[in-house]
Write a structure and sequence with these properties.
Distance between the termini: 36 Å
Strand order of the largest sheet: 1-2-3-6-7-8-9-10
Strand content: 15-25%
Radius of gyration: 18 Å
Order of helices and strands: EHHHHEEEEEEHHEEE
Oligomer: single chain
């Protein structure tokens, strides 16, 4: 998936090493089926017309259906075909994090954090999640805290300008990064897909959309370094935020 996954388990049991091995196998399998970077993946072969949808891995239709659901929820700002090529990574990366967290939970862990390419899902807590600054390598734009967090960031910090505006076909340029904190019940797969869509929207539309979405808060970093956020994000922040933060004007 072109990124790195990491795990923190506060309540390891005797089978934790084995569980982590099985998670690694599951992640490699997801990558083999869904990676647009692999010419032999089901997604790449489906896109080239070499494989029918019915002949794909059984999880492919479910993932594409989830992508269509998110597209409807975001008024078309999310698509499984950014730039015209079949690429459901906007859903798959968060879903892979969710799958890893699910396997840890099934194994008995109730205190863990799974991170993959800017997407974080935690259980138990409290946990502190650092948000990479998209304009200042090695520094943080913010630190969020809480229990049972689903935190997803889309931006330029790790992969450059890679999020495509589906309405123009060009890389979205209105934001440097957009972080969403989702309701624990929402899960990181949907939170991540929403973050991808919201990044493509640009700051005003993204913050307004997040403000209308129950259980979702947003932090935007603009290309000039200005930070804006939805009012409810305060519960995930320290008592006093940096002086350069400006509340969103979303309504």
């Amino acid at each position: 998936m072109g990124t790195v996954f990491s795990f923190a388990v506060r309540d390891p049991g005797p089978d934790t090493p084995g569980v982590l091995d099985r998670i690694a196998e599951r992640l490699h399998r997801i990558d083999a089926v869904f990676s647009p970077y692999r010419a032999d993946s089901d997604i790449s072969r489906l896109d080239r017309g070499e494989l029918s949808l019915g002949a794909c891995d059984p999880e492919v239709p479910a993932v594409l259906a989830a992508c269509r659901e998110v597209a409807a929820e975001t008024d078309g700002w999310f698509t499984e075909r950014p730039g015209g090529r079949l690429d459901p990574s906007g859903w798959v990366k968060g879903w892979a994090v969710e799958e890893a967290a699910r396997m840890l939970h099934t194994s008995g862990s109730r205190e863990h954090c799974v991170s993959g390419g800017g997407d974080v899902q935690t259980a138990g807590g409290p946990w502190r999640v650092g948000i990479a600054h998209p304009l200042r390598p090695g520094r943080l734009a913010a630190v969020l805290g809480g229990r049972g967090l689903a935190v997803a960031t889309s931006g330029t910090a790790e992969r450059g300008a890679h999020v495509v505006d589906p309405r123009t076909g060009r890389p979205a340029a209105g934001l440097a990064s957009l972080t969403l904190v989702g309701d624990p019940g929402t899960g990181i797969a949907r939170t991540d897909a929403w973050a991808t869509a919201a990044f493509a929207m640009g700051p005003d539309r993204a913050l307004a959309w997040a403000a209308r979405r129950p259980g979702v808060e947003a932090l935007a970093v603009l290309p000039d370094g200005t930070k804006r956020w939805t009012d409810g994000l305060a519960r995930h922040l320290p008592a006093a935020g940096p002086a350069d933060w400006h509340p969103a004007t979303a309504s």
